[in-house]
Amino acid sequence: MRPRVEEVRIQGLGVIDEAVLELSPGFNVVTGETGAGKTMVVTGLGLLFGGRADPSRIRPGAERASVEGTLVIDPGGRVAQQVEDIGGQAEDGELIISRTVSAEGRSRAWLGGRSVPVGTLTYLADDLVAVHGQMDQQRLLQPARQRAALDRYAGNALVKPLRAYTQAYRRHKQVAAQLEELTTRARERAQEADLLRFGLEEIEKVDPKPGEDAELRAEEERLSHADALRNAATTAHTALLGDPMEAAGGARDVVSLLGEARAAMEAVRDFDAQLAGVADRLAEAGYLISDVATDLAAYAESVEADPGRLAAVQERRSVLSGLTRKYGEDTTAVLAWAQSSAARLTELEGDDERIGELTRELDELTARLTELADELTKVREAAAERFGHAVTEELTALAMPHARVVVQLTRSDEFGPEGRDEVELRMAAHPAAPPLPLNKGASGGELSRVMLAIEVVFAGADPVPTFVFDEVDAGVGGKAAVEIGRRLARLARTAQVIVVTHLPQVAAFADQHLVVEKASDGSVVRSGVVTLNHEGRVRELSRMLAGLEDSELGRAHAEELLGLAAADR
């Protein structure tokens, strides 16, 4: 579904107090007496789509000017998605846009019920509207727009080579970025490789084992306190089993005391089951204490003060500490660092080979891009020639018989996303004049007609759904005016067209005719914009033709114009 503007409400803008424009999907024309505020309609549409806010345009005595537009859009289309992305809503395919400008120059905008920067409206307008007025000819004056429009005009002939070029361009860009990263960071990567190599060599020289630092720490503790450990074990052993070197009757050991207690229990165990259980437990305790005493004796004999081994352990721990300070919290982490660093070093050491591979691929892609860009240029040159002839023919019918439009293609030294062609529309006002950029080769009124001719030729290829023309018929009349009306009607077959005109020949071709009525005090009142029926159109066209709404001759001429336009459609 093609988006379109359904209704526009304007308040406090210029001479307009309040006006409502109900627009048709096709050709809408706005007429009215001089000074009634027709151009304010275009100004209001410009504000609605992000145009510059001029406080001097606010109606005298009003605090602000406001414009609100209702657009019909595809709920699943691109515009609806853009609105949703910024948090706005388009309910049932209906989008509300509004803009206010205060007398102090402050401007505010709303899109889908959400306050947005004015720039958002400008961004959205690129896909919605093209305004061609005396002071507003921006869209197709942008080089990127001109190239995109020419590409759409070229049609299927450009689709396949452009798709192939786009794929090759993306890969070319990726390879060029990788190659630049490798070559421009060669010094940093070499330094990184040296640091990794040094670290790996240092670790390899030490040859740490997983958990080795914890084991050495425990061994150092034992060796550092060997005398205390041996004395403690000996003392405990003596307490449990006694000292065989002491004379009988000396200190009594734990095992002897347990033996006496067990003997006392064994003597009476048959008389009481409870004491029998105690006797068994004393026996178990005796066995356990004897085992512990044996272990203590063996431990005491094994513990020796070994200054040499202690020095070796401390030295090894010092070496390992040097590694853990640099590469990890323990030897396990150091070994993990070594593993990952070895992989990274392998990658870095392969850079030279990788650079060679990427260089060869980049050369191949450059050759391929050159070939595809040449193909794009040939297709565009053919389309540009057809387009130039078509627009020039249109200008002849629009009372510019000596004007000539050409498409200039300039070859860039750099590859771009769309090729190497820079496209610029140019116009020569007469045969002896050199082709100049559109905004320099034509006056304001001529430029509107040039844009009309271009839009008619681009019709169907240009995706913009709404076109606005202000004074496109400036300086023409008679047959040329009829041709302008005919071409606007032709453009309205594929897009919504809104035209402000003072020529009846143009107005006769409209699908919907709106008239801005001027009140006696020089302002436009609330009911100032009226949608005309057939009888109203006859009266308005008669006024435009003869200046007298009820002139029989004027009415007859108006009927004739309406009949001519209807037959042409």
TrEMBL record:
Name the Gene3D superfamilies for this protein.
P-loop containing nucleotide triphosphate hydrolases
Q: Which residues form a coiled coil?
A: 348-382
Known CDD domains for this protein?
ABC_RecN
Boundaries of every RecF/RecN/SMC N-terminal domain copy: 6-521
MF-aspect GO terms: ATP binding
Transmembrane keyword on record: no
A single Gene Ontology CC annotation of this entry is: bacterial nucleoid
Which keywords does this Swiss-Prot/TrEMBL entry list? ATP-binding, Coiled coil, DNA damage, DNA repair, Nucleotide-binding
The record's Gene Ontology biological-process terms are:
DNA recombination; DNA repair; SOS response
Regarding protein family, the annotation reads:
Belongs to the RecN family.
Task performed by this protein: May be involved in recombinational repair of damaged DNA.
**The name this protein goes by in its record:** DNA repair protein RecN
- Organism per entry: Nonomuraea maritima
